[in-house]
Design goal:
By secondary structure, the protein is an all-beta fold. 0% of the residues lie in helices and 53% in strands.
């Protein structure tokens, strides 16, 4: 069973930076995609950024140029470097992992979430 443990959230002023980390443990297929999603009360969880084990990245338009996703494949850890933070980035951030089974990506594993609050 895969478990994800996030860290790095907190309170920051607008324009500041934060770095989120997520470590995956358990039996993990080498071909996978890890990423970050975020959610605010009353809204659906939305994609922030993803990165495959081979390095292909995807970003939400709202964070392009401000956030950078990176990975340490050896330690199954994914990072989200967030810069130029805005109050609208305030949300609970969730780590996500999906494994490729040779045909398709399977169901997602989720972390417990870490809160990011950006004050104006």
């Amino acid at each position: 069973q895969v478990q994800l443990a996030e860290s790095g959230g907190g309170l920051v002023q607008a324009g500041g930076s934060l770095r989120l980390s997520c470590a995956a443990s358990g039996s993990i297929f080498s071909i996978n995609v890890m990423g970050w999603y975020r959610q605010t009360p009353g809204k659906q969880r939305e994609l922030v950024a993803t990165r495959t084990a081979r390095g292909t990245t995807t970003y939400a338009d709202s964070v392009k140029g401000r956030f950078t996703i990176s990975r340490d494949n050896t330690n199954n850890t994914v990072y989200l470097q967030m810069s130029s933070l805005k109050p609208e980035d305030t949300a609970a951030y969730y780590c996500n992992l999906r494994e490729f089974n040779g045909v398709s990506y399977g169901p997602a594993y989720w972390g417990q979430g870490t809160q990011v609050i950006v004050s104006s």
